[in-house]
UniProtKB/TrEMBL annotation:
<dbReference type="InterPro" id="IPR020781">
    <property type="entry name" value="ATPase_OSCP/d_CS"/>
</dbReference>
<dbReference type="GO" id="GO:0046933">
    <property type="term" value="F:proton-transporting ATP synthase activity, rotational mechanism"/>
</dbReference>
<dbReference type="InterPro" id="IPR026015">
    <property type="entry name" value="ATP_synth_OSCP/delta_N_sf"/>
</dbReference>
<keyword id="KW-0406">Ion transport</keyword>
<dbReference type="GO" id="GO:0045259">
    <property type="term" value="C:proton-transporting ATP synthase complex"/>
</dbReference>
<keyword id="KW-0472">Membrane</keyword>
<keyword id="KW-0066">ATP synthesis</keyword>
<comment type="function">
    <text>This protein is part of the stalk that links CF(0) to CF(1). It either transmits conformational changes from CF(0) to CF(1) or is implicated in proton conduction.</text>
</comment>
<dbReference type="InterPro" id="IPR000711">
    <property type="entry name" value="ATPase_OSCP/dsu"/>
</dbReference>
<keyword id="KW-0375">Hydrogen ion transport</keyword>
<comment type="function">
    <text>F(1)F(0) ATP synthase produces ATP from ADP in the presence of a proton or sodium gradient. F-type ATPases consist of two structural domains, F(1) containing the extramembraneous catalytic core and F(0) containing the membrane proton channel, linked together by a central stalk and a peripheral stalk. During catalysis, ATP synthesis in the catalytic domain of F(1) is coupled via a rotary mechanism of the central stalk subunits to proton translocation.</text>
</comment>
<dbReference type="Pfam" id="PF00213">
    <property type="entry name" value="OSCP"/>
</dbReference>
<keyword id="KW-1003">Cell membrane</keyword>
<keyword id="KW-0139">CF(1)</keyword>
<keyword id="KW-0813">Transport</keyword>
<protein>
    <recommendedName>
        <fullName>ATP synthase subunit delta</fullName>
    </recommendedName>
</protein>
<dbReference type="GO" id="GO:0005886">
    <property type="term" value="C:plasma membrane"/>
</dbReference>
């Protein structure tokens, strides 16, 4: 985002925090769901989307337009967030919509945290990303531009209903419906957002064999000392590594696998 949109996004996030302060998890979850519904409308109606982000029109007029279109259809808390968001000056129309998506995600994850289920939601999102990565046909079906958003969401619902948290389902359906590319990456981004709301970072670990709980805790403690932040460890088994682990945190990769050591040895001998 350019500077104007970053500032606008910050103000919209402040509005979300204010609207959700001292409310219960049901209200918070409702706000997240309603923000997603607003985004669906904006995705379908280009003229409305453009009008709500038109900097040539005064902020009060844009806010009034949002109230006319959505007033009475969404809660007061959601409307307060929406009117604040559209009253800001955005560098691009897409930045407004993308910010509303993130605010919806944050609201749902806050609701999960209030219910004591954010760990479960984060783990389910990570596992969904891995399932999609391991099933090319499923990934193709979920990212095919010729397939409607509704069809993608219905496919996901058939696969996940009754198997994951309801908040995980909502987040997954929205991510797949609006995915512009790799669905697995979209789920990883959600997992990282969940960790960031808990002031943590995510370590994606590929291990040659399953790690014991003690090994996971020791690894998390070691990474916390390195990055000076609590670390959530997600482990995926990859027998092709032969032994050891490969750790990815953001752009950092720590390769402690047997395959990695052999590759470095060959390079040193070349």
């Amino acid at each position: 985002m350019y500077a104007a949109s970053r500032e606008a996004s910050s103000r919209a996030r402040e509005a979300l925090s204010a609207a959700l302060s001292a409310t219960g998890d049901i209200t918070i979850a409702t706000t997240g769901s309603e923000l997603f519904a607003v985004v669906d409308v904006l995705d379908d109606q280009r003229s409305l989307r453009v009008a709500l982000a038109d900097k040539s029109v005064s902020s009060s007029v844009r806010a009034e337009l949002a109230e006319r279109v959505f007033g009475g259809k969404i809660s007061a808390a959601t409307l307060a967030v929406l009117t604040t968001a559209v009253a800001q000056d955005w560098s691009r129309t897409r930045d407004l919509v993308d910010t509303l998506v993130v605010l919806g995600q944050e609201a749902l994850l806050r609701a999960a945290a209030d219910r004591g289920r954010i760990d479960a939601v984060e783990d389910e999102l990570f596992r969904l990303a891995r399932i999609i990565e391991d099933n090319p046909n499923l990934e193709q079906a979920l990212t095919d531009h010729a397939t409607s958003q509704q069809a993608k969401r219905e496919l996901l619902a058939r696969l996940l209903t009754g198997k994951v948290e309801d908040i995980t389902m909502q987040l997954a359906e929205q991510a797949v419906g609006r995915s512009r590319g790799d669905a697995g990456i979209a789920f990883d981004q959600l997992s990282e957002l969940a960790a960031s709301l808990r002031k943590q970072i995510v370590a994606y670990v590929r291990a040659a064999t399953e790690l014991t709980q003690q090994q996971r805790e020791q690894l998390a403690a070691s990474l916390q000392r390195i990055y000076d932040k609590p670390v959530t460890v997600h482990v995926q088994i990859d027998t092709s590594l032969l032994a050891g682990v490969v750790i990815r945190i953001g752009d950092d990769v720590i390769d402690g696998s047997a395959v990695g050591r052999l590759r470095r040895l060959r390079q040193s001998l070349a």
